[in-house]
Amino acid sequence: MQKGQIRVHTENIFPIIKKFLYSDHDIFLRELISNAVDATQKVKTLASIGEFKGELGDLRIDIVINKEDKTLSIIDRGVGMTEAEVDKYINQVAFSSAEDFLQKYKDANIIGHFGLGFYSAFMVSDKVEIFTKSFKDEPAVYWSCDGSPEYELYQVEKEERGTRIVLHVNEESKEFLEADRIKGILEKFCRFLPVPVYFEDKQINNTNPIWTKKPSELTTQDYQNFYKELYPFGETPLFWIHLNVDYPFNLTGVLYFPKIKQSYEIQKDKIQLYSNQVFVTDEVKDIVPEFLMLLHGVIDSPDIPLNVSRSYLQGDPNVKKINTYITKKVADKLEEIFNKERSEFEEKWESLGLFVKYGMMTDDKFLEKANKFFIMEDASVKKFYTLDEYRTATEASQKNKDGKLVLLYTTDPVQQDSYIKAAANKGYKVVKMETLVDAAFINTMEMKWENVTFKRVDADIVDNLIDAQETNESVLNKDEEAKLKEWFGLQIGETHITVDVKGLSADAPPVVATRPEFMRRMKDMAGVGGGMASFYAQMPDEVTLTVNGNHSIYQQLLKEDNSDKLNKQVRNLADLALLSQGLLKGEELTSFINRSVELMEGKTKSNIILEA
């Protein structure tokens, strides 16, 4: 029998472990099972090369709870350890000093960096025991430690090859004696381990997930079934990308484009990171480009250690290469679908557009590729344009005096329908920009696309959408124009209203409400972000009421001698225009409805009198 002290340069190892690992104390089970997987894989390798000639037997890992004894056991049938190996791998822990360690690694998760995977067991245990028998022809051994630097090590009887680790769970950690708690940890960390893991006589893992196979071996149904395995309540994904690269880094995985019907359904942190099929984290924002955080799926890379800190990911060159590779792979896949199956691509654009726009805003390399397959839907007809196609279609009609393409868009095709129709009648092409990211996308693309400016279709009267017209002749004289300006000089809540009298065509609406592009855009941005946009959010709405002096209704109103009726008619004309901009709400909307009824009733009474 051997007794001694665990060889570290400090006696504070166990307080350090408990203090610094306790926030993630369920990781102990992942670490111990990962060790068991390694031991199992080693014995398979040794058998395959002839160094182990015995029977492999049933290679599995068992997790066993004994509530009466307050123990949790992890049992494998792997290579096992000799007495010398236990002394080497368990009894020697390399620390320079506790003080240096705390200073250098105070922000890092220390398991994995220092061979401390096994010692994580002491986070939840008063005592840890090891029963192990090597595949070599040597006696089995027993090791135990109660959380102090002292240990015991001696030979015992054990028939089966492999290792059994027994944790005597402490009072503070008795949750780990509950079956549901252990099952939850196993499902989180071990669901795709390459060695069968059994708990309560049931195998809890899929040892051959699809990312370990070649794409040629898989069917569409295989990919869809695996998605259901990852996200049981998710809708069938749009499509997927199978990642498989072994140089200059190792990476496998499958990324899915989920179906997103509404912008508010966007969910991040749905990509799981694995290392050799062991779950690491679902916070992958330093590995996957930010805009692809909207994707779902799995990435597996043995080049990324099991336990990684944020600073590690940010500084590791492999991580940067993986990030670049994934961006290129996604861009190539989207371009391939666009070129080969454009109609299908267009059908899925409602969901795809969010990924593409987000990527174009945040990643210039992706933007360069995406310019070829980014599309915009026409607001009037079922038709999509790439930027080049839109430019060609509007070459003759939508260039302003500075030679820039004026890209007309709508954020609400239903509410802005009258503006869209007016633009279409002029031969203009209006496209839909109605998602959560479009306000930011428009601002960003104006800086990144050459000679392109965006203008919402209701930002001005139709005659001024491309270039402001210098002269607009009205049939009214100066006094009549001044009277109209006075009539429409309204105050609607906090909305700042400017009145302009112009001579539009006789069949144009009597009043058109428009919102200046810059201020309206800033207020739109305020709805999705902070910064300067929040400043503009506090400012009142700005609206221009363009009164069409050539509309016949004003010839009648200028002759009206009933000032009360005149005021109501003028106010109703203004409210109709404001209603088209969604600016008539609450009390103002109620007043408009009541006033409209009054005017209709008055007209009906007049007709009755005339008929009499």
Primary descriptors:
single chain; 612 residues; alpha+beta; Heat Shock Protein 90; Ribosomal Protein S5, domain 2; Rossmann fold; nine-stranded mixed β-sheet; five-stranded mixed β-sheet; 22 strands
Question: How would you summarize what this structure contains?
Answer:
This protein is α+β, with helices and mostly antiparallel strands. Helix content is 37%, strand content 19%.
Mean pLDDT: 82
| Discrete helix count | 20
CATH superfamily of the largest domain: Histidine kinase-like ATPase, C-terminal domain
Count of DSSP strands: 22
Work out the oligomeric state of the chains in this entry.
single chain
Uncertain regions: pLDDT < 50 for 5+ in a row?
94-102, 104-115, 605-612
Tally of distinct domains: 4
Structural class estimated from helices and strands: alpha+beta
First-to-last CA distance: 123 Å
Based on Cα principal axes, name the global outline: elongated
Binding site for ATP: 31, 35, 76, 81, 163, 310
Family: Belongs to the heat shock protein 90 family.
Pfam family, one: HSP90
GO molecular function, one term: ATP-dependent protein folding chaperone
